[in-house]
Amino acid sequence: MRLSFEVTRKDPDTHARRGTLFTRRGRLETPIFMPVGTAGTVKAVDPQEVLALGFQLILGNTYHLMLRPGTEVVAAHGDLHDFMGWGHSILTDSGGYQVFSLAKLRKLDEEGATFRSHIDGSLHLLGPERSIEIQEILGADIMMVFDECPPVDASLEKLRQVCDRTTRWAQRCLEARTERGGALFGIVQGGLDVPLRMAHLAELGALPFDGLALGGLALGEGPARTDELVSAVAPHLPPAWPHYLMGVGLPQDIIRAVGSGIDMFDCVVPTRNARNGQLFTWDGPIQIRHAAHTKDTRPVEEGCRCPACSRFSRAYLRHLYQSSEILGSRLNTLHNLYFYAEMMTRIRAAIDEGRYASWARETLERLERPAVAK
Protein backbone atom coordinates (compact mmCIF):
# COMPACT_ATOMS: atom_id res chain seq x y z
CA MET A 1 0.00 0.00 0.00
CA ARG A 2 1.38 3.39 -1.00
CA LEU A 3 -1.43 5.53 0.39
CA SER A 4 -5.07 5.38 1.43
CA PHE A 5 -7.37 8.25 2.36
CA GLU A 6 -10.78 8.37 3.98
CA VAL A 7 -12.96 11.42 4.59
CA THR A 8 -14.41 10.93 8.07
CA ARG A 9 -16.40 14.13 8.59
CA LYS A 10 -17.71 17.02 6.48
CA ASP A 11 -18.57 20.42 7.90
CA PRO A 12 -22.25 21.23 7.23
CA ASP A 13 -21.70 24.89 6.29
CA THR A 14 -18.38 24.88 4.40
CA HIS A 15 -16.33 22.54 2.25
CA ALA A 16 -14.06 21.75 5.23
CA ARG A 17 -13.51 18.06 5.84
CA ARG A 18 -11.74 15.74 8.25
CA GLY A 19 -9.86 12.77 7.01
CA THR A 20 -7.47 9.96 7.83
CA LEU A 21 -4.45 9.54 5.57
CA PHE A 22 -2.36 6.38 5.71
CA THR A 23 1.12 6.34 4.17
CA ARG A 24 3.64 3.51 4.27
CA ARG A 25 4.78 4.89 7.62
CA GLY A 26 1.57 5.36 9.48
CA ARG A 27 -1.63 7.25 10.10
CA LEU A 28 -2.04 11.01 9.63
CA GLU A 29 -5.02 13.14 10.61
CA THR A 30 -6.13 15.81 8.17
CA PRO A 31 -6.25 18.75 7.72
CA ILE A 32 -2.51 18.61 8.28
CA PHE A 33 0.41 21.03 8.12
CA MET A 34 3.90 19.96 7.06
CA PRO A 35 6.94 21.80 8.45
CA VAL A 36 9.45 22.36 5.66
CA GLY A 37 12.74 20.47 5.88
CA THR A 38 14.22 21.58 2.56
CA ALA A 39 17.75 20.30 3.12
CA GLY A 40 16.92 17.35 5.35
CA THR A 41 16.24 19.42 8.45
CA VAL A 42 13.48 21.62 9.80
CA LYS A 43 15.71 24.61 10.45
CA ALA A 44 16.87 25.15 14.05
CA VAL A 45 15.07 22.16 15.61
CA ASP A 46 15.78 18.47 16.21
CA PRO A 47 13.50 15.89 14.52
CA GLN A 48 12.41 14.61 17.91
CA GLU A 49 11.33 18.13 18.85
CA VAL A 50 9.28 18.32 15.64
CA LEU A 51 7.61 15.02 16.57
CA ALA A 52 7.01 16.12 20.17
CA LEU A 53 5.22 19.22 18.91
CA GLY A 54 2.71 16.98 17.12
CA PHE A 55 3.96 16.74 13.53
CA GLN A 56 4.27 13.38 11.76
CA LEU A 57 4.73 14.57 8.18
CA ILE A 58 7.46 16.89 6.93
CA LEU A 59 8.57 18.12 3.51
CA GLY A 60 11.93 17.60 1.83
CA ASN A 61 13.20 19.06 -1.44
CA THR A 62 14.44 17.02 -4.37
CA TYR A 63 16.47 19.80 -5.99
CA HIS A 64 18.40 20.84 -2.88
CA LEU A 65 19.10 17.29 -1.68
CA MET A 66 20.22 16.29 -5.16
CA LEU A 67 22.88 19.01 -5.10
CA ARG A 68 23.87 18.70 -1.43
CA PRO A 69 24.67 16.24 0.03
CA GLY A 70 23.82 14.24 -3.11
CA THR A 71 21.70 11.14 -3.52
CA GLU A 72 24.63 8.79 -3.08
CA VAL A 73 25.27 10.12 0.42
CA VAL A 74 21.62 9.76 1.40
CA ALA A 75 21.42 6.28 -0.14
CA ALA A 76 24.48 5.16 1.84
CA HIS A 77 22.40 5.68 5.00
CA GLY A 78 19.34 3.88 3.60
CA ASP A 79 17.11 6.80 2.67
CA LEU A 80 16.24 10.32 3.83
CA HIS A 81 14.42 9.03 6.91
CA ASP A 82 17.58 7.27 8.09
CA PHE A 83 19.87 10.12 7.04
CA MET A 84 18.04 12.76 9.07
CA GLY A 85 16.82 10.57 11.92
CA TRP A 86 13.14 10.96 11.12
CA GLY A 87 11.11 7.75 11.29
CA HIS A 88 7.83 9.20 10.12
CA SER A 89 6.31 10.30 6.82
CA ILE A 90 8.06 12.55 4.30
CA LEU A 91 6.60 14.33 1.27
CA THR A 92 9.14 15.50 -1.29
CA ASP A 93 8.72 18.44 -3.62
CA SER A 94 9.78 17.46 -7.13
CA GLY A 95 12.18 20.32 -7.80
CA GLY A 96 9.64 21.91 -10.12
CA TYR A 97 9.42 25.06 -8.01
CA GLN A 98 13.14 25.65 -8.54
CA VAL A 99 12.44 25.64 -12.29
CA PHE A 100 10.54 28.83 -11.48
CA SER A 101 12.59 30.37 -8.68
CA LEU A 102 16.00 29.82 -10.30
CA ALA A 103 14.95 30.92 -13.78
CA LYS A 104 18.18 32.85 -14.34
CA LEU A 105 20.24 29.67 -13.87
CA ARG A 106 18.32 27.26 -16.12
CA LYS A 107 17.16 26.46 -19.63
CA LEU A 108 13.78 24.81 -20.01
CA ASP A 109 12.73 22.39 -22.75
CA GLU A 110 10.58 19.28 -23.10
CA GLU A 111 13.19 17.09 -21.42
CA GLY A 112 13.20 19.21 -18.26
CA ALA A 113 15.32 21.95 -16.74
CA THR A 114 19.03 22.18 -17.51
CA PHE A 115 20.62 24.43 -14.92
CA ARG A 116 23.77 25.52 -13.18
CA SER A 117 24.00 24.62 -9.50
CA HIS A 118 23.65 27.66 -7.27
CA ILE A 119 26.33 26.04 -5.08
CA ASP A 120 29.24 25.32 -7.45
CA GLY A 121 28.04 26.08 -10.98
CA SER A 122 27.98 22.44 -12.08
CA LEU A 123 25.56 21.55 -14.89
CA HIS A 124 22.51 19.34 -14.23
CA LEU A 125 19.38 18.13 -16.02
CA LEU A 126 16.31 17.64 -13.88
CA GLY A 127 13.25 16.28 -15.63
CA PRO A 128 10.31 14.01 -14.81
CA GLU A 129 12.23 10.73 -14.85
CA ARG A 130 15.20 12.03 -12.88
CA SER A 131 12.93 13.72 -10.35
CA ILE A 132 11.05 10.49 -9.66
CA GLU A 133 14.33 8.55 -9.48
CA ILE A 134 15.66 10.93 -6.84
CA GLN A 135 12.43 10.93 -4.84
CA GLU A 136 12.47 7.14 -4.79
CA ILE A 137 16.10 7.13 -3.60
CA LEU A 138 15.08 9.55 -0.85
CA GLY A 139 12.36 7.11 0.18
CA ALA A 140 9.57 9.68 -0.01
CA ASP A 141 6.23 8.43 1.23
CA ILE A 142 4.48 11.01 -0.97
CA MET A 143 6.14 12.19 -4.17
CA MET A 144 5.18 15.14 -6.36
CA VAL A 145 5.19 15.23 -10.14
CA PHE A 146 7.78 17.38 -11.87
CA ASP A 147 5.88 20.43 -13.05
CA GLU A 148 6.43 23.86 -14.54
CA CYS A 149 5.50 26.75 -12.27
CA PRO A 150 4.65 29.93 -14.22
CA PRO A 151 5.31 33.49 -12.99
CA VAL A 152 2.33 35.37 -11.62
CA ASP A 153 2.28 37.74 -14.62
CA ALA A 154 2.33 34.99 -17.26
CA SER A 155 0.06 35.49 -20.28
CA LEU A 156 -2.92 33.23 -20.86
CA GLU A 157 -1.10 31.62 -23.77
CA LYS A 158 1.91 30.93 -21.57
CA LEU A 159 -0.35 29.45 -18.87
CA ARG A 160 -1.89 27.11 -21.45
CA GLN A 161 1.58 25.97 -22.50
CA VAL A 162 2.54 25.39 -18.85
CA CYS A 163 -0.56 23.29 -18.23
CA ASP A 164 0.04 21.21 -21.36
CA ARG A 165 3.67 20.59 -20.50
CA THR A 166 2.86 19.82 -16.85
CA THR A 167 0.33 17.20 -18.01
CA ARG A 168 2.89 15.60 -20.32
CA TRP A 169 5.47 15.59 -17.56
CA ALA A 170 2.90 14.18 -15.11
CA GLN A 171 2.28 11.23 -17.44
CA ARG A 172 6.03 10.63 -17.66
CA CYS A 173 6.29 10.72 -13.87
CA LEU A 174 3.60 8.04 -13.60
CA GLU A 175 5.45 5.90 -16.13
CA ALA A 176 8.77 6.40 -14.34
CA ARG A 177 7.52 5.38 -10.89
CA THR A 178 8.58 1.90 -9.78
CA GLU A 179 7.35 -0.40 -7.02
CA ARG A 180 9.91 1.26 -4.79
CA GLY A 181 8.17 4.61 -5.10
CA GLY A 182 5.69 6.15 -2.72
CA ALA A 183 2.34 7.73 -3.47
CA LEU A 184 2.34 10.26 -6.31
CA PHE A 185 0.38 13.52 -6.46
CA GLY A 186 -0.38 15.57 -9.56
CA ILE A 187 -0.09 19.36 -9.53
CA VAL A 188 -2.79 21.57 -11.04
CA GLN A 189 -1.46 24.71 -12.70
CA GLY A 190 -3.19 27.55 -14.55
CA GLY A 191 -2.24 30.71 -12.69
CA LEU A 192 -5.21 32.79 -11.56
CA ASP A 193 -7.39 31.79 -14.51
CA VAL A 194 -10.22 29.70 -13.04
CA PRO A 195 -11.45 28.11 -16.32
CA LEU A 196 -7.89 27.06 -17.18
CA ARG A 197 -7.40 25.64 -13.69
CA MET A 198 -10.62 23.67 -14.00
CA ALA A 199 -9.58 22.30 -17.40
CA HIS A 200 -6.19 21.26 -16.05
CA LEU A 201 -7.82 19.72 -12.99
CA ALA A 202 -10.00 17.60 -15.29
CA GLU A 203 -6.95 16.40 -17.24
CA LEU A 204 -4.98 15.40 -14.16
CA GLY A 205 -8.01 14.02 -12.35
CA ALA A 206 -8.36 11.44 -15.11
CA LEU A 207 -4.86 10.07 -14.42
CA PRO A 208 -4.11 7.41 -11.74
CA PHE A 209 -2.70 9.67 -9.05
CA ASP A 210 -3.04 9.25 -5.29
CA GLY A 211 -3.87 12.92 -4.68
CA LEU A 212 -3.89 16.34 -6.31
CA ALA A 213 -2.24 19.61 -5.38
CA LEU A 214 -2.84 23.21 -6.36
CA GLY A 215 0.53 24.71 -7.30
CA GLY A 216 1.77 28.04 -8.57
CA LEU A 217 0.22 30.17 -5.81
CA ALA A 218 1.60 32.51 -3.12
CA LEU A 219 4.02 33.87 -5.71
CA GLY A 220 3.16 37.54 -5.33
CA GLU A 221 -0.48 37.64 -6.39
CA GLY A 222 -1.59 38.56 -2.85
CA PRO A 223 -3.69 36.63 -0.29
CA ALA A 224 -7.05 37.88 -1.58
CA ARG A 225 -6.45 36.59 -5.11
CA THR A 226 -5.03 33.32 -3.78
CA ASP A 227 -8.15 32.81 -1.67
CA GLU A 228 -10.40 33.67 -4.61
CA LEU A 229 -8.72 31.06 -6.80
CA VAL A 230 -8.64 28.37 -4.10
CA SER A 231 -12.29 28.90 -3.13
CA ALA A 232 -13.31 28.57 -6.79
CA VAL A 233 -11.24 25.48 -7.65
CA ALA A 234 -10.62 23.42 -4.50
CA PRO A 235 -14.25 22.27 -4.03
CA HIS A 236 -14.00 20.56 -7.45
CA LEU A 237 -10.91 18.46 -6.67
CA PRO A 238 -11.62 14.69 -6.72
CA PRO A 239 -13.49 14.04 -3.45
CA ALA A 240 -11.85 10.67 -2.78
CA TRP A 241 -8.31 12.07 -3.02
CA PRO A 242 -6.39 14.23 -0.54
CA HIS A 243 -6.19 17.90 -1.58
CA TYR A 244 -2.87 19.72 -1.10
CA LEU A 245 -2.28 23.48 -1.35
CA MET A 246 1.42 23.99 -1.96
CA GLY A 247 3.42 26.73 -0.27
CA VAL A 248 0.50 28.69 1.22
CA GLY A 249 0.92 29.05 4.93
CA LEU A 250 -0.10 32.15 6.87
CA PRO A 251 -2.58 31.09 9.58
CA GLN A 252 -5.48 33.01 8.05
CA ASP A 253 -4.71 31.58 4.59
CA ILE A 254 -4.79 28.04 5.97
CA ILE A 255 -8.06 28.61 7.83
CA ARG A 256 -9.75 29.96 4.71
CA ALA A 257 -8.36 27.19 2.49
CA VAL A 258 -9.59 24.48 4.86
CA GLY A 259 -13.05 25.96 4.41
CA SER A 260 -12.65 25.39 0.66
CA GLY A 261 -11.79 21.71 1.12
CA ILE A 262 -7.98 21.67 1.36
CA ASP A 263 -6.49 18.85 3.46
CA MET A 264 -2.72 19.41 3.33
CA PHE A 265 -0.42 22.42 3.67
CA ASP A 266 3.28 23.26 3.76
CA CYS A 267 5.10 26.56 4.11
CA VAL A 268 8.35 28.03 5.39
CA VAL A 269 6.42 30.81 7.16
CA PRO A 270 6.47 29.46 10.74
CA THR A 271 10.18 28.67 10.69
CA ARG A 272 11.50 31.48 8.48
CA ASN A 273 9.43 34.14 10.22
CA ALA A 274 10.57 32.80 13.59
CA ARG A 275 14.20 33.36 12.63
CA ASN A 276 13.25 36.90 11.61
CA GLY A 277 11.61 37.57 14.97
CA GLN A 278 7.92 37.25 14.05
CA LEU A 279 5.98 35.12 16.53
CA PHE A 280 2.40 33.99 15.97
CA THR A 281 -0.31 34.38 18.60
CA TRP A 282 -4.09 34.00 18.58
CA ASP A 283 -4.38 37.79 18.55
CA GLY A 284 -2.09 38.19 15.56
CA PRO A 285 1.70 38.12 15.21
CA ILE A 286 4.16 40.13 17.27
CA GLN A 287 7.64 41.31 16.34
CA ILE A 288 9.87 40.30 19.23
CA ARG A 289 12.57 42.79 18.18
CA HIS A 290 10.34 45.78 18.97
CA ALA A 291 11.45 47.94 21.88
CA ALA A 292 8.05 47.48 23.55
CA HIS A 293 9.23 44.02 24.63
CA THR A 294 12.51 45.18 26.21
CA LYS A 295 11.28 44.79 29.81
CA ASP A 296 8.19 42.66 29.20
CA THR A 297 8.14 39.76 31.65
CA ARG A 298 5.15 38.06 30.03
CA PRO A 299 5.50 35.02 27.76
CA VAL A 300 4.81 35.49 24.08
CA GLU A 301 1.28 34.20 24.70
CA GLU A 302 -0.41 33.52 28.02
CA GLY A 303 -1.43 29.88 28.35
CA CYS A 304 0.87 28.69 25.55
CA ARG A 305 2.66 25.50 26.58
CA CYS A 306 5.47 25.65 24.02
CA PRO A 307 9.09 25.36 25.25
CA ALA A 308 9.58 29.13 24.86
CA CYS A 309 6.45 30.39 26.61
CA SER A 310 6.61 27.87 29.44
CA ARG A 311 10.08 29.05 30.53
CA PHE A 312 11.03 32.41 29.03
CA SER A 313 9.77 35.98 28.79
CA ARG A 314 9.34 38.27 25.81
CA ALA A 315 12.19 40.36 27.21
CA TYR A 316 14.52 37.38 27.16
CA LEU A 317 13.52 36.37 23.63
CA ARG A 318 14.06 39.96 22.47
CA HIS A 319 17.49 39.95 24.13
CA LEU A 320 18.41 36.74 22.29
CA TYR A 321 17.22 38.18 18.99
CA GLN A 322 19.08 41.47 19.46
CA SER A 323 22.21 39.51 20.41
CA SER A 324 21.90 37.18 17.39
CA GLU A 325 21.99 34.20 19.71
CA ILE A 326 21.21 30.82 18.15
CA LEU A 327 18.98 29.94 21.09
CA GLY A 328 16.66 32.76 20.04
CA SER A 329 16.07 31.17 16.63
CA ARG A 330 15.45 27.82 18.26
CA LEU A 331 12.95 29.08 20.82
CA ASN A 332 11.15 31.27 18.30
CA THR A 333 10.87 28.32 15.91
CA LEU A 334 9.57 26.02 18.62
CA HIS A 335 6.92 28.57 19.53
CA ASN A 336 5.73 29.07 15.96
CA LEU A 337 5.64 25.35 15.22
CA TYR A 338 3.69 24.77 18.43
CA PHE A 339 1.22 27.46 17.35
CA TYR A 340 0.74 25.79 13.95
CA ALA A 341 0.31 22.36 15.51
CA GLU A 342 -2.26 23.77 17.93
CA MET A 343 -4.01 25.58 15.08
CA MET A 344 -4.39 22.34 13.12
CA THR A 345 -5.69 20.57 16.25
CA ARG A 346 -8.32 23.28 16.71
CA ILE A 347 -9.25 23.15 13.02
CA ARG A 348 -9.81 19.39 13.20
CA ALA A 349 -11.84 19.72 16.40
CA ALA A 350 -14.07 22.42 14.90
CA ILE A 351 -14.81 20.23 11.87
CA ASP A 352 -15.49 17.21 14.08
CA GLU A 353 -17.97 19.28 16.08
CA GLY A 354 -19.71 20.65 12.98
CA ARG A 355 -18.90 24.27 13.81
CA TYR A 356 -16.07 25.12 11.44
CA ALA A 357 -17.79 28.15 9.90
CA SER A 358 -18.32 29.92 13.23
CA TRP A 359 -14.91 28.91 14.58
CA ALA A 360 -13.16 30.18 11.45
CA ARG A 361 -15.06 33.47 11.49
CA GLU A 362 -14.26 34.14 15.16
CA THR A 363 -10.63 33.09 14.81
CA LEU A 364 -10.05 35.21 11.71
CA GLU A 365 -11.50 38.23 13.51
CA ARG A 366 -8.88 37.79 16.23
CA LEU A 367 -5.97 37.06 13.90
CA GLU A 368 -6.73 40.02 11.64
CA ARG A 369 -7.43 42.56 14.36
CA PRO A 370 -5.58 45.85 13.66
CA ALA A 371 -2.11 45.83 15.16
CA VAL A 372 -1.85 47.34 18.60
CA ALA A 373 0.68 47.05 21.40
CA LYS A 374 0.51 43.41 22.46
C-alpha Rg (nearest Å)? 20 Å
Cα distance, first to last residue? 49 Å
- Give the overall shape, derived from the CA principal axes: globular
* Beta-strand fraction estimate: 15-25%
Please describe the topology of this protein.
Elements: E1 3-10, E2 17-23, E3 26-30, E4 32-35, H1 47-52, E5 57-61, H2 62-67, H3 71-77, H4 80-84, E6 89-93, H5 96-101, E7 106-109, E8 112-116, E9 123-126, H6 128-138, E10 142-144, H7 156-176, E11 183-188, H8 194-205, E12 211-214, H9 223-233, E13 243-245, H10 251-259, E14 264-267, H11 269-275, E15 278-279, E16 286-287, H12 314-322, H13 326-352, H14 356-367
Could you describe the 3D structure shown?
The chain is 40% helix and 19% strand. Helix 6 crosses helix 7, helix 7 (156-176) packs parallel to helix 8 (194-205) and helix 11 (269-275) packs antiparallel against helix 13 (326-352). Strand 10 (142-144), helix 7 (156-176) and strand 11 form a beta-alpha-beta unit. The protein folds into two domains: 3-267, Alpha-Beta Barrel (TIM Barrel), CATH 3.20.20; 275-363, no CATH class. It has helices spanning 47-52, 62-67, 71-77, 80-84, 96-101, 128-138, 156-176, 194-205, 223-233, 251-259, 269-275, 314-322, 326-352, 356-367, and strands spanning 3-10, 17-23, 26-30, 32-35, 57-61, 89-93, 106-109, 112-116, 123-126, 142-144, 183-188, 211-214, 243-245, 264-267, 278-279, 286-287.
Short key terms for the protein model shown above:
374 residues; alpha/beta; TIM Barrel; 2 domains; 8-stranded parallel beta sheet; 3-stranded antiparallel beta sheet; 40% helix; globular
